[in-house]
Protein 1
Amino acid sequence: MIKKIPFSPPDITDREINNVVEVLKSGWITTGPKVKEFEERIKSYCGVKNVILLNSATAGLFLSLKALGIGEGDEVITTPYTFAATSNVVLHCGAKPVFVDIGEDFNISVKNIEKAINSRTKAIISVDFGGFPVDYQEILDLCRKYNITYISDSAHSFGAIYNGNKIGTIPDFTVFSFHAVKNLTTAEGGAIVFNSDDEDLYRKLKLLSLHGQSKDAFEKYATTNSWYYEIQEVGYKFNMTDIQAALGIAQFDRYESEILPRRKAIFNIYNEILKNENLILPPQKTESKETSYHIYALRIKNIDEKVRNEVIKIMSDKGISLNVHYIPVVMHPVYKKMGYDIKDYPKSYETYISELSLPVYSQMKDSDAEYVASCLLKTLSILKIV
Ligand SMILES: Cc1ncc(COP(=O)(O)O)c(C=O)c1O
């Protein structure tokens, strides 16, 4: 029987199960005290003033744009090297995504951003690819210079470090994902965090997240004689439930002590075994940044797409799931139809055809990681790549 190594299964222990069961038995399962508790925990972890938990990062990105009034005729600068959620939300608002190619670290190239800014540019959405922070301060400086809002799609980077602090404090909005494959999961879920003292902004985002209601369900029904509410905005239905928050709190309890160190250990095992002049290891740590160890994105020098895909097939036959992050957004049919062309983003294309993502999950044993890396090296050597 071959050994099966999945790509990224969720790490669910009795702690998560017990927390969820407790909520199920509590009589309150939608947005309520557990969401509040989780918001407070994230607030102090990230060192931010405001946290709004939602049902996805997509909702968080969309709401940020909506709260700013971004719409038709506006442009939002972002990276093509991401999941389509990042740019789909711009289109949902009626605005135009303007893609700026990436640099050596998979992240948007700051030096190319300035050339793309014009009078229609209203926001920049950068992505911390694989958990490795972008150059926040440099992007913020550009945003301030041109009076543009800075939104960070930090779907991958909860717990990453920038200038000695947890990320979340520098951009105008930082959006996290707690989707099932993320480091910390609530099955589906996300959060907007921001550091502003603007109470109207917080209130607007809260209203927009739940049909524009002046009170959420807990405020209406769990306290006495407070049934009256008003619809003050044409809002959406993006709230997180207490079931999800209970799961998230259990994950959060284990995040710094178990989940992050384990992911880092797996990265280090891969780094050790895959040290090779024909391989480029993922960005991990610099003087000012440390990844959240979300995606182990390996690049292979001088490979083409066909051979890269062959490597994935051989590894899959051996029971090991690999992945590719990402097919650049502009290569997807719906974006091509809009006129975007990958030829305009050569670094994204070069990165895409050479990239392989290796399995990383916190239940993974050292021996599993050693097995994956040695099978991969053997495969690359048979194909005469290393
Ligand atoms: C870079 C990036 N942004 C946004 C999202 C959307 O996250 P969610 O599924 O929580 O909406 C994802 C999801 O995988 C992502 O990878």
Protein 2
Amino acid sequence: MKIQKLAVLFVVATLSACAQVPKQATVFHYATIDALLAGAYEGELTVDELKRKGDFGIGTFNRVDGEMIVLDGDVFQFKADGTVAKASGGQFTPFAVVTSFKADNRYEVSKETSMKELEDMLDERLVNKNLFYAIRVDGEFKQLTTRAISPQDKPYKPLAEVTKTQTLFNFSNTRGTLVAFRSPGFAKGFNVPGYHWHYLSDDRKAGGHVLALSLSQGAIKVGAASDIEIKLPANSMFANTNQTVDRATELKAVEKLRKD
Ligand SMILES: [Zn+2]
């Protein structure tokens, strides 16, 4: 009986040691991933307004003109023509996720690691899968595949159609930063459940939405967030977007590397 009691106490102690106590970090969302999937490519939030909500994050620009990377308070635009530029404060986003980055935990990677291995490794360490996590990886990449989307014209097609024409980029031996979030399963609808990785190179010449990678070595910082804020566009495009359907299959097609 005494042994059983001790065993129970040990389990409780282990659980409380593992439970990550999040700081009061907030993940700010503008619009919803389902609206973006449906083709609502015009938002009313400016880059300057977004910057007030966080210094780290990902998203896109109106007309899905390239991929957004928010790093150390700067907002970058990686376009489908392969160029990187600092976004101007007046540019608009139809979808973005940012936070004020604070690292709770740090890990090192010293052997070649694929995207799947990186996600598996993080999954082992992130005990509470029902929190949001901001993930920053500064490192050297043997190989990195990204995509960017060209600016779209009205009438906008759904994102799963548009990504069929996405431009793929393969970078070798590149140094830079992965900017990512891991969102819980219940975030489906307004954010991407699981991992969503964007990249920006140190020389600010490469970037994009990451489809595959091979990390040679790197430093990982992870910050948990228990607070979320969602700002919805007030425009008619968002109002008239059907967000009653399940877009999980479309999201999978959009987020992953297309084989066809
Ligand atoms: Zn993305």
